[in-house]
Amino acid sequence: MSPVPQAPAQTLGVLVETPQHSGLSGPLDYGCDRPIAPGTLLRVPLGRREVLGIAWTAPRPAEAPAAEGWALRPVAAVFDRLPPLPATWCALIDFAARYYQRGAGELALAVLPAELRKLDATQLDRRLRRLDRAASAAPPAAHPAPERPALTPEQAAVLDALGLERIGQAGAEPPVSLLDGVTGSGKTEVYLRAAETVLAGGRQVLMLVPEINLTPQLEARVAARFPARRILSLHSGLSPALRLRHWLQVLRGEVDLLLGTRMAIFAPLDRLGLLVVDEEHDPSYKQQDGARYSARDLAVLRGRLERAAVLLASATPSLESWHNARPQAEGGAGRYQRLAMPSRIGGGVLPRVRLLDLGQLRREDHAAGLIAPALVEALQQRLARGEQSLVLLNRRGYAPVLHCAACGWKSGCPHCSAWRVFHKSDRSLRCHHCGAAERVPRHCPECGNADLDALGRGTERLADELAERLPGARIGRIDADSTRAAGSLEAQLAQVHAGDIDVLVGTQMVAKGHDFRRITLVAAVQPDAALFSSDFRAPERLFSLLMQAAGRAGREASQSGQSEMWVQTWHPTHPLYQALVRHDAAAFAEAQWRERFEAGLPPATHLALLRAEARTQEAAQAWLAAAAALGAAAAAETGVSCFPPVPSPVQRVAQVERAQMLIEAPRRAPLQQMLAAWLPQLHGLREPRVLRWAIDVDPLAI
Ligand SMILES: Nc1ncnc2c1ncn2[C@@H]1O[C@H](COP(=O)(O)OP(=O)(O)OP(=O)(O)O)[C@@H](O)[C@H]1O
Ligand SMILES: [Zn+2]
């Protein structure tokens, strides 16, 4: 760290945090007296504050002041004990900012660890000295070579096809690969072997997983396989201090293999050889606020920038990736290489899928609870045999609504267009949108009736019901509520793995990724709603969730023969469930792909969503309509269509009305061109009642 003296001789473009609505998007000019490499972290004055910035352009000779009294403000301090951010990192930020239509400063600063923004030079120095000491400590002792299973022929073929020998070769880089591998086919082993090759070649590996809850298990597997390697993780479950520490270690090159959730795509690695995106179809790869980027799509771009191998993998690839991997001769984009592992390890079979027709049940069976008698019986049999079951319900809490039968009152949220959910464990009514919570009323707040009904069922109530109907069974529940305390998720998963739980109730959180060895029955008790959602991606999401869930059963090949997946449904003949019965993800994807092309939906077209928030719905929509009018010429020129503004799916949250407008283009380039011409004009569109607006490119939920 060195103070920068006055009288700047050079001008330096610096990225600072500039929110989208400020209308500033490029680097700001500062003065410096010596060369500063692009990517260098520094602190600069901004208004009356001093903020973190990134040197973005090479210094150029300072120009004469443009006007009297105008002077270039000098850089306040340079963090030159840190290496500059790698050039490929800067290129990634530049691309992503343009693609997602954000300011480069907004994006770049948002993806740095928050803690870094708060540090001055002395504080940073202290942390770096601590890292120096740790780095100079004794290197890890020699370890016995860890055991690795012999590869199956399918695994070996996939590894061969990845093109790892071509990493770093300009013009002959490895291809982007999409691995379509059924659950339990040994995809993780493929990642580990590919990582081994890449690490041996002196390059780094980035492995992305969709959710923090999947990191501990994978981290343990990776650490066991590579005991002598430096393995780090980056995800939002880390404390701010630890996240900064890991990030600094990455920037200093002190990592071989980095594991993380979507934020890790922006880790400043500079010797990347391999990027793995596990469960690539998962919606959590899309950031849902601020700069709404897709870590999956950026992994493909980053792989290209670094000439690294990219492996996207899933048992149910997203339709976008599926289309990209489909040969052009078949109407696909032919951009990725398609690889498959259709068999389960050890010759295990996928569970038999049984559709339980709710229409066939008697009235008293429906009245008795959420679980049909035949399913209760099946659960009892597993219990008697000492096997585990997993019961899925994608709704947490006890009941989604509280209702007064006397006057019709329901537990609506006063601030949102949503119901407040009844949570029995802490006797609260909680809004899952704005977080407003209060004690559950003893009497109806409208008429005083003491008899309030809980309508519908969430995971808490399902666990109660199971405890009642399976006396003696050890019931566990894993959802966002049960895992709030630090370490509680790990503890609960350990109980399941140790066999201390007989029946596990959970949300989608437990449906994917986990290598549960003793589960032989998985049941989805109420999946129908997604069949009729207005979101065109709902069936794709439901199908992949059910396939993933089915994949949690019978992972021990010896037990796979008796393993089952039960689905309770009113629509057993629906094509989605029929494809599930046949485990036919390819046929399902093919049918969805055709439907999307016929309807002109992604991946046939490209979308963006302009959202506005205002005090009234009318103001939000009026602003969007005015925006559309401003963009009409650019839209006509590029062949892009703007649909009329509509209320957002959850129209009001925390007293704010939300509306949205869909923008559709036949190809990506005209969409980008139109947005780039149009969005800057919107900063001038003043409407005092509009609080915020934002653009979402490639939106996931519509
Ligand atoms: N070649 C192999 N020989 C023996 N066992 C293997 C082999 N490859 C993987 N396994 C084991 O098979 C099990 C399933 O593998 P893994 O968890 O990698 O599957 P997956 O395809 O990642 O599954 P999912 O998509 O459901 O997460 C693991 O317990 C793993 O250790
Ligand atoms: Zn609310």
UniProtKB/TrEMBL annotation:
GO annotation terms (biological process): DNA recombination; DNA replication initiation; DNA replication, synthesis of primer; double-strand break repair
InterPro entries: DEAD/DEAH_box_helicase_dom, Helicase_ATP-bd, Helicase_C-like, P-loop_NTPase, PriA, PriA_3primeBD, PriA_3primeBD_sf, PriA_C
Residues binding Zn(2+) 2: 413, 416, 431, 434
Cofactor info, note text: Binds 2 zinc ions per subunit.
Enzyme category, top tier: isomerase
GO cellular component, one term: primosome complex
Binding of Zn(2+) 1, residues: 404, 407, 444, 447
Location of the Helicase ATP-binding domain: 168-335
EC number per UniProt: 5.6.2.4
Required cofactor(s): Zn(2+)
Classification via NCBIfam families: priA
Function of the molecule: Initiates the restart of stalled replication forks, which reloads the replicative helicase on sites other than the origin of replication. Recognizes and binds to abandoned replication forks and remodels them to uncover a helicase loading site. Promotes assembly of the primosome at these replication forks.
Similarity comment text for this entry: Belongs to the helicase family. PriA subfamily.
HAMAP family: PriA (MF_00983)
Protein name per the record: Replication restart protein PriA
Organism name: Aquariibacter lacus
Gene: priA
